[in-house]
Amino acid sequence: MPIYLANCIRSLCATAILPAILFTFSNTTKAHAAEAGVSRPLAVARATRLANLRYQLSFILKPHESSVAGTETLTFESKSAGDLSIDYRDGVVQSATLNGHSISTSLENGHLNLPALAGQNTLIVAFISNAAPAGKAITRYEDKDDGSEYFYTLFVPMDASMAFPCFDQPDLKATFILDIEHPANWSVIGNTAPVTASVNVKSTHTQFAETRPISTYLFSFTAGPFASLRSQKTSEPTLYVRSSQLARAQQEAPQVQRMTARAIAYFSSYFSQSFPFSKYDLVLIPGFPFGGMEHVGATFLNEDSILFRSTPTASDYFHRDILLLHETCHQWFGDLVTMRWFDDLWLKEGFAQYVAYKAMAELEPRSNAWKHFYEDIKPAAYGIDETQGTTPIFRNIPNLKDAKSAYGAIVYRKAPAVLKQLNYLLGDQAFRNGLRLYLKDHAYATAEWSDLIHAFEVAGDRLGHHHDVQSWAAAWILRRGMPQVEVTWSCKQGRIAGLTLHQEDVLKQGFLWPMSIQLFGETQAKFASAPVSPLTLRVDWSDANHVVTEALGRQCPVYLFTNFNDEGYGRFLLDPVSQSAMPSAVPNHDPLLHVMLWGALWDDVRLAKLKPRSFLNLALSNLPEDEQFDEAFIRIQGARMVKGLHSYVSTSTRNLLAPRVEKAFSDAMTNNHDLGLRIVNFRTFTAVAETPAGPQQLKQLLAGKLVVPGLILRPLDRWNLVGQLIAMDDPESQSVYAAEKEHDHSGET
Ligand SMILES: [Zn+2]
Predict the structure, then answer these.
(1) Which of 74, 436, 452, 602 is the most buried (most CB within 10 A)?
(2) How far does residue 204's CA lie from ligand 1's centre (Å)?
């Protein structure tokens, strides 16, 4: 039964729902036990009732076994006596005593019933949990390279209760003492450093120091014959990797460790709070389902994201740095202060992603981090948000078992994008001070979005600038969709005589959004008699049509762009005058503005406000010049040209333009000075080759008669070539396919 109002952030409608909680859930926790998972009512009731939780856990890890035996001593205080559900599923409880008395070991819908006392309680349980190559909270990984085996845990969002009995909700933080019996040649990495290790002939017993209070989903361990790469510098984390990949890891470790140490230093300063836990390790896990997972004191990282399986490009290194920054940020934002419930997942993920780029922009100014943000983060968000299937950022999660459905582009892409807008609205100082306040007030505890709103408002007030963050959140967090922004303007005698911003709801729901954006007008000194600076103007507005009086009388620009520096979120179009000024007026000195103007032109194409043929001609004529920019831009521009040719122009236009497009990418894949650009041009050429000359070149590439300097074709590259030949119905495609099948045994088709 939906107790919570749809599309409602708890904080914003707390008064409306509180009586419902009290009425429905007072004084009973067992009544909800029959429901599988952890329902919101069960979580609320337990969080109200329980305190001072402490888990002592022992596991026995044996290679090649599909189960893990464990014992647990859990102590907690209960405000009241009576039935209490603890979560455990998938395993078997062998014995259980509560306060010295045996209790039933039977599980009901993933819960064990505890007849708890008021006051202090002690639960002692022996259990057997499952471990498997997939689908379990404890994963066994067998290394095909050397036959060794590794175990790792992944509990987010509520799978700790597949590994051991626990109150599996983020706001019942507890301290953990872990000890593990394992083969003598294995290492075990946990949330804290090991304190003792007793070695027997066949096994070792490793015990870890007690953790600070942490949520169950952030508790973790991994074990196996890991190789460790320790840095000489104490500020750098130890990197663990499976033994068979040691050589690859040795090449990458120095950069990875250095960037992580820089991330720790940056966030310690930015949050005004030193690293919150006793140690920090990085563990590379093969086949890890996410890029990374921010367990307290030990981030697990997907091995391929760090070691690269093919020749890395500049973009690959950039994204690896962003991943390291993102995960390191979580040690504060997520681990030190944890969301009370998974409906605030967007906040921790959006925040870590946004702040990772913010840190990168400061640590590596030459990386053009905000340009990457525009290219990597925003398209997926806009791509979903302009469709009727989109959702608001805030998603009500009635039961933690459904929390995995909240993961997606709206959380990982739109949330960071609107946090960038919030940062611009508040200003850097109020934004940072609000975060500092929030982390200080809720350290080693949990909090929710309303607490962060409050912290931002307090920080703003202290600086003398009150901001209504609640209204902002109502529009951006609770509502789905986005605005389309257009501008009309006119000049008289070289001065702006009128300038109006217009917004409309892309999904035609009639919504208006509060926005803080920067107008940019290129005045181009070359047309003026004396040097002039461009027009830049901040505009805060929320109406459908907004007259920008501050612009009146300013020098008439060559073109206007309404989302300078990409602070706003939405579709920002070029007016016809500005459109016709492109691309000769596109500045080369500002990479972000450069790619955004091309993006705005492409939006005009998609909305039939610019002829696709005109766009293709513009892009083609600028391609050689634009290659001074990075591979990301070429990749995106190439994709637009392919889409334009294949979906937007007539057959006759396609026949006319295809040879030019093909030749441009073919030339660039062999001649460009940069390997990354050659690779990106090669991939685009593979997708675009369709004239009679194209297939010949594809076949020459397969035969090794045509070579992209520095690129060794991997199986997937080869199959893409074959796939394009088949798509074009090339007469030799079937024989080429058969030959490739004979040749390739990697299974990477
Ligand atoms: Zn994250």
Answers:
(1) 452
(2) 33
Ligand 1 center–CA 530 separation, angstroms: 50
**Rounded to the nearest 5 degrees, what angle is found at the Cα of 306, between the Cα atoms of 303 and 309?**
75
pLDDT digits (tens, 9 = 90+) for 153-196: 999 999 999 999 999 999 999 999 999 999 999 999 999 999 98
Report if residue 316 sits inside a domain. Answer: no
Tell me the pLDDT tens digit for each residue of 720-729: 899 989 988 8
CA–centroid distance, 348 to ligand 1, in Å, is 7
| DSSP β-ladder status, 495-505 and 515-522 | unpaired
Q: What share of the chain is helix, strand, coil (3-state, %, to 5)?
A: 45, 25, 35
CA of 157 to the centre of ligand 1 (A): 12
Question: How many structural domains does the chain have?
Answer: 4
Q: Are residues 352 and 409 in the same domain?
A: yes
Q: How far is the CA of 12 from the centre of ligand 1 (A)?
A: 25
Name the residue among 595, 603, 593 with its Cα closest to residue 572.
Answer: 603
State the pLDDT confidence band at 674, using cuts at 50, 70 and 90: confident
CATH number for the domain that contains residue 54: 2.60.40.1730
Q: Residue 624 — pLDDT band, cuts 50, 70, 90?
A: low
Q: Alpha-carbon distance 160 to 698, whole Å? A: 50
- Domain boundary (224, 255, 271) is at 224
Tell me the CA–centroid distance for residue 349 and ligand 1, in Å.
5
Residues within 5 A (CB) of ion ligand 1? 349, 352
Distance CA 35, CA 109 (A): 6
**Could you read off the pLDDT of 341-380 as tens digits, one per residue?**
999 999 899 999 999 999 999 999 999 999 999 999 999 9
625, two tokens: 């010049």
Residue range of the domain that includes 493: 482-601
Ligand 1 centroid to residue 669 C-alpha, Å: 35
Single out the residue of 504, 481, 515 nearest to residue 384, CA to CA.
Answer: 481
Helix (H) or strand (E) holding 351: helix 345-363
What is the 41 CA–ligand 1 centroid distance (Å)?
Answer: 26
139-164, pLDDT tens digit by residue? 999 998 889 999 999 999 999 999 99
Backbone angles phi, psi at 36, to 5 degrees: -70, 160
Q: Are residues 466 and 487 in the same domain?
A: no
How far, in Å, is the centroid of ligand 1 from the Cα of 205?
A: 32
Q: How far is the CA of 195 from the centre of ligand 1 (A)?
A: 29
Q: How far away, in angstroms, is 353 Cα from ligand 1 center?
A: 7
Could you tell me if 306 and 257 are in contact, meaning their C-beta atoms sit under 8 angstroms apart?
Answer: no
Give 122-136 pLDDT, tens digit per residue: 999 999 999 999 999
Dist. CA 117–CA 115, nearest whole Å:
7
CA 149 to centroid of ligand 1, rounded, Å: 27
**Residue-level pLDDT at 745:** 57
For residues 97 and 138, state if they share a domain: yes
**Average pLDDT of the residues in 223-228:** 97
Do 633 and 574 have their domain in common?
no
Residue 291 lies in a domain: no
Centroid of ligand 1 to alpha carbon of 323 (angstroms): 9
pLDDT at 583 over 80: no
| 366 shares a domain with 470 | yes
Alpha carbons 459 and 461: distance in angstroms, whole number: 6
Could you say which of 447, 476, 505 is where a domain stops?
Answer: 476
Please state the pTM of the whole predicted model.
0.90
Percent of the chain scoring above 70 in pLDDT: 92
Distance 439 CA to ligand 1 centre (A): 17
CA 271 / ligand 1 centre spacing (Å): 17
CA of 214 to the centre of ligand 1 (A): 17
